[in-house]
Each structure stands twice: as structure tokens, then as C-alpha cells.
Amino acid sequence: MFLRQYWNDTRLAYAHRGYNQSLTLNSKKSELWVPDLYFINEKEGSFHEITTPNLLLRVNPTGRVTYSQKLTVKLSCNMDLKKFPMDQQRCHLKMESYGYTTEELIFEWVNKTKDRVQFSDDLELPEFVTPPNISTENRVVKYLT
């Protein structure tokens, strides 16, 4: 999957210097703040790194950051198979911040519903039907820490 995150970091803005092109800063990732998003129901995951790490970190003149990376994840999916094979299952992709509170970081889906989740035109899953509609929601969960 391609996971894309966007945020504004005014500390990185440079439009006032008269330069109007976006900067690609892939090699500077370790020096910049990036959200600590993780998949709650992940069983296994990996970053794609052949032939180079598959990531994009781009900053535009106003400090708008685009962070895109290619990932493979296996997720746990609780299934109710009482009606198998006439059942329908829903698997959730659950994401949240690992260490920040909602006072520090809030994840929100992009405004355009069609841009939230996209499937490749040639996606094929044997024995499965790619969902015709995807639903997303924002949720706040309280943990005891």
C-alpha cells in the first residue's frame, strides 16, 4: 500500500525567501518531525526498500509536507463465520498515534472521500471481492498510561 500523510509545519516554510519550488527531502527524514502513526491491528509489516527506500518527503514553500511511503502490512481481522459461505466480512484498517495525545496530534482523513482509499485497477484477490465502497471514521480513544 501507499500510505500518504500531509501536514503543515510552518518552521519549514521558505516562501518568504522568494523560492517557489517544492523541495524533496527524502535524505533528511531523520532530521524532520514525522507523525508516529502505527497500525493497531498489525500482525506483520515491512517497508519497501529495493532499490532504495520507497518514500517521498516533500515540502512546499508554505511548509505543507507530503510524506508518502510504500508498505506491506498483514492485519488481524476478526471474522464471524457462522453463516459461511454465505457471509460477508469486514476487515478494518485501524491507525493511530503511538505516543502523542489529541492535544498534540490529530489524524484526519482528507476531505475528498474518493481520495481516502484507492485500489489499483488491476487488483485481484482470489476468492474475495474488492469492496465497492469504503467507509472511514475519525475516533478518539482514551488509554490509561
Automatic annotation (TrEMBL):
Domain of life: Eukaryota
Entry keywords, A to Z: Ion channel, Ion transport, Membrane, Transport
Pfam families referenced in this protein's UniProt entry, alphabetically: Neur_chan_LBD
GO MF annotation list: extracellular ligand-gated monoatomic ion channel activity; transmembrane signaling receptor activity
Annotated compartments: Membrane
Segments forming domain Neurotransmitter-gated ion-channel ligand-binding: 1-131
Annotated protein name in UniProt: Neur_chan_LBD domain-containing protein
Species this protein is from: Macrostomum lignano
Lineage: Eukaryota, Metazoa, Spiralia, Lophotrochozoa, Platyhelminthes
